[in-house]
Amino acid sequence: MERKIYITSADKERLEKLIIKEKEFNPASKEYLKSLEEELKLAQVVPSKEIPQDVITMNSKVLLKDLDADEELTYSLVYPADADLLEDKISILAPVGTAILGYRVGDVVNWKVPDGVVQLKVENILYQPEATGDYDL
């Protein structure tokens, strides 16, 4: 059974434009954009004001638990221009960024890595722009 993810209409529009831009200016990026394109195709699109507060959207700050290593990780899911690993800001174009988009609190994300699959449980959403009325981030 495929998972059901949610995405705001605004995020989907911005991400589709980002994919087009990346393909145009970075032809080598086509391969890693495929999984993001697939996520967007499968996603249920919801108006920003109606997205559930427990869904990871763009610019959300989330608490994840690595079920294999039994450690907690905090990331903000951002657009590439805002990515900064030192500040735990992960680009949507990074594999883990694409993997967590649209998941809900309590879900387990299967993140494919070179050595196999890492299971990340969404423990909490520490900040979601839509939940606080920030619809234009």
Automatic annotation (TrEMBL):
The alphabetized UniProt keywords are:
Elongation factor, Protein biosynthesis
Name this protein carries in UniProt: GreA/GreB family elongation factor
Domain Regulator of nucleoside diphosphate kinase N-terminal: from-to ranges: 3-46
- Which GO biological process annotations does it have? DNA-templated transcription elongation; regulation of DNA-templated transcription elongation
Show where the Transcription elongation factor GreA/GreB C-terminal domain sits: 52-127
Gene3D superfamilies registered for this protein in UniProt = Transcription elongation factor, GreA/GreB, C-terminal domain (3.10.50.30)
**Key word Signal present:** no
Q: Which organism is it from?
A: Desulforamulus reducens (strain ATCC BAA-1160 / DSM 100696 / MI-1)
Q: Name one Pfam family in it.
A: Rnk_N
Molecular functions per Gene Ontology: DNA binding; RNA polymerase binding; translation elongation factor activity
Per the record's keyword annotation, is Cell membrane included, yes or no?
Answer: no
Q: Which domain of life is it from?
A: Bacteria
